[in-house]
Amino acid sequence: MKNLGYLLILLCAICLSKSISAQQLPQFSQYMLNPYIINPAIAGCENELQIRSTSKYQWTGITDAPRTFNLSFTNSAFGEKAGYGGLVYTDIAGPTRRIGLQGSGSYISPITESLKFSIALSLGITQYAVDGDKIDVRDIDDPLLADRLSSDFLFDARAGFYLHHEKYFFGFSIPNLTQTDIAPFVDEQPVGVLEPHYNLMAGYNYQINDDFEVQPSVLIKYVEPAPFKIDINVLATYRDQFWIGGGYRINDGIIAQAGANLNNRMMVSYAYDIITSDLSIYSGGVHEFLIGLNISKPEVESVDETSGLD
Question: pTM (2 decimals)?
Answer without folding.
Answer: 0.81
